[in-house]
Specification:
The protein is mainly alpha-helical. The chain has a single domain, classed as Rossmann fold (3-Layer(aba) Sandwich). The protein is 44% helix and 7% strand. It has 4 helices and 2 strands; from the N terminus they run H-H-E-H-E-H. Helix 3 links the parallel strand 1 and strand 2. The radius of gyration is 15 Å and the shape is globular. The two termini are 29 Å apart. One of its GO terms (biological process) is nucleotide-sugar metabolic process.
Length: 120
């Protein structure tokens, strides 16, 4: 499972290159390692719903998983780019891949301004 990523949207505006390097290049390094190893059961890439961009406010349901990717910030663009690599390695090299697009992943060492910390 590939959870590693720079995730703070606001920081991505001032430091886009670090987000690209970490999220896109880092994903490529992991994919290359899996390809070289040759016997992985599955590469699970944890992405974000941010790759969809803004949801149409008139929609009765959120974005469908097959919706076009329209990232609206550097963080989302870096995650969309990483997804494209994951899909390409799946198609080109036969790596068994899955991409998840959750939101507000939380856990130890998260930024204090994240939603769940505000509830406590």
């Amino acid at each position: 499972m590939h959870f590693a990523a720079k995730t703070h949207v606001d920081n991505s505006f001032g430091n886009s290159f670090e987000f690209i390097k970490n999220n896109v290049y880092g994903t490529c390094v992991l994919l290359e390692a899996c390809k070289s190893f040759g016997h992985i059961k599955r590469f699970v890439h944890v992405s974000t719903d941010e790759v969809y961009g803004e949801t149409d406010e008139n929609a009765t349901v959120g974005n469908h998983e097959a919706s076009q990717l329209l990232p609206t910030n550097p963080y989302a663009a870096s995650k969309a780019g990483a997804e494209m690599l994951v899909m390409a390695y799946g198609r080109s090299y036969g790596l068994p891949v899955i991409i998840t697009r959750g939101n507000n992943v939380y856990g130890p060492h998260q930024f204090p301004e994240k939603f769940l910390n505000l509830l406590s």
